[in-house]
Design brief:
Layout (H helix, E strand, L loop, with lengths): L3 E5 L5 E6 L10 E4 L7 H12 L3 E8 L6 E3 L5 E3 L2 E10 L2 E9 L6 H17 L4 E9 L9 E5 L2 H9 L3 E2 L8 H11 L3 E9 L6 H15 L6 H37 L1 H4 L4
Helix pairs in contact: 1-5, 2-4, 5-6
Length: 273
């Protein structure tokens, strides 16, 4: 039986539930965050890592700032919305170990986003984490065959490293939500934070973008991961996009046909519009 330990954080709205039997004895693991957002780009990527690495459950994070919903799971049980943290002792370019954070929701207001980001980095600090990656969506509003990867970081050395990895570095704009806030707070704490963003339309759950961002991440970390499952989901995304594009093309043709009908009628109607 797994023993759990309920911990009240420094923020009244947050509760952390640790699985004490599974707390790893490690140092310097890399923290990778993928929160649910546009296209579920980051979440799908981190969930894939959790599954393929057979990662160990470490903690659940509950917050009253999450939407007031009860989530029904595939096995029929139910639970409050939460973020969840897993651990793997797999070696990476930065040392040994990964902390993998995903979840059901982001907070519903800016103050709570800051509170939750601080809590997550507090946990990472206990394990002496110095390197953080967040995975996010770069929304373009259009479908692409090969999603590009963009990136930003809290320090110039890391940005230069992105150049060397042939990642498109961002030169303006902003990143909203937890995937951006965590990198900003990490910089204030003198931790190295990087945000990788995959190009996506923002219209669908985009496993193809998740696959692209995951391929970039595992190259940076020097990881070997079985990509079969996410490749399968990426193909499903491609089929969905093709269906949407066909529907859009059909709709435009119908509009053109209707426009043509209207244009043939003015001579009969006696006016031009």
């Amino acid at each position: 039986m797994t023993i759990t330990l309920y911990v009240r954080s420094n923020h009244p709205e947050i509760n952390v539930v640790y699985s004490t039997q599974n707390v790893p004895d490690t140092s310097n693991p890399v923290l990778i965050c993928g929160f649910p957002g546009s296209g579920y780009v980051g979440k799908l990527a981190v969930d894939h890592l959790i599954h393929e690495l057979d990662a160990t459950h470490l903690a659940d994070i509950y917050s009253t700032s999450f939407p007031a919903q009860l989530l029904i799971k595939s096995d029929g049980t139910a639970d409050l919305l939460k973020n969840y943290l897993f651990y793997s002792n797999v070696p990476t370019h930065y040392g040994s170990g990964l902390l993998l954070l995903s979840g059901d929701s982001q907070p519903s207001n800016p103050d709570s986003e800051y509170f939750l980001a601080e809590e997550i980095l507090d946990i990472a600090t206990r394990f002496n984490t110095g390197q953080i990656f967040t995975l996010a969506a770069y929304i373009t509003g259009s479908f692409v065959s090969t999603p590009r990867i963009f990136g930003t970081a809290g320090d110039l050395d890391t940005v230069q490293g992105l150049h060397e990895q042939h990642i498109n570095t961002m030169e303006g704009g902003s990143i909203t939500g937890m995937n951006g806030i965590i990198v900003g707070i990490a910089k204030r704490r003198r931790m190295r934070g990087t945000c990788l963003l995959a190009e996506t339309s923002g219209f669908v759950i985009d496993a193809k973008a998740s696959k692209s961002i995951l391929e970039t991440l595992v190259t940076i970390l020097h990881l070997k991961i079985d990509m079969t499952n996410i490749e399968r989901r990426a193909k499903d995304t491609e089929m969905l996009i093709k269906t949407i594009e066909q529907q859009m093309t059909s709709s435009l043709r119908q509009q053109d046909d209707q426009s043509s009908v209207v244009q043939t009628r003015p001579s009969d109607m006696g006016y031009i519009s």
